[in-house]
Amino acid sequence: MAHFITKTILAITSFIALANPLPIQNPIPLDPLDLVIDKLATCESSQIPDVIVIDTNGYKSYGWLQFQQRTFDYFGEKYGLPHDDIMSPAQQIPIAKAMLKNGLWKAWYNCLRYVKLDR
């Protein structure tokens, strides 16, 4: 008897769902730069947020997108974005997106081939 009741409830629930479908929400459009940032982070740091390396110019590069401190501070200030934690991907990503939107893709010249940025 319990099996019959369960099947009946499922049938009624299915019928109600088909008769009254939920409206489809418009999905949040993805920023096309999200894929670029993801590839850059993979190339620069293997997406490990706490990486610190000595760059070829002798300065340290930090975090997900391997920003040097002076670059991070300069562009954070220029674009009015938070820039008090260079190790934070949440701060690096908006700065990187702003830089890329302004054609500053050369900041990641070692990863250009991997990311295949349009120049």
3D architecture notes:
The chain is mainly alpha-helical and 119 residues long. Helices cover 49% and strands 7% of the residues. The protein is built from five helices and three strands. It has helices at residues 2-19, 33-45, 69-78, 89-101, 112-115, and strands spanning 52-54, 60-62, 67-68. The longest helix is centred in the first third of the chain and has 18 residues, at 2-19. The model has no long low-confidence stretch (mean pLDDT 82).
Which characteristics define this entry?
119 residues, mainly alpha, Lysozyme, 3 strands
Spatial strand order of the main sheet: 1-2-3
Q: Beta-strand percentage?
A: 5-15%
Q: What is the gyration radius calculated from CA atoms?
A: 23 Å
Distance between the termini: 69 Å
Largest sheet: 3 strands, antiparallel
The topology string of helices and strands comes to HHEEEHHH
Layout: helices, strands, pairs:
Elements: H1 2-19, H2 33-45, E1 52-54, E2 60-62, E3 67-68, H3 69-78, H4 89-101, H5 112-115
Antiparallel strand pairs: 1-2, 2-3
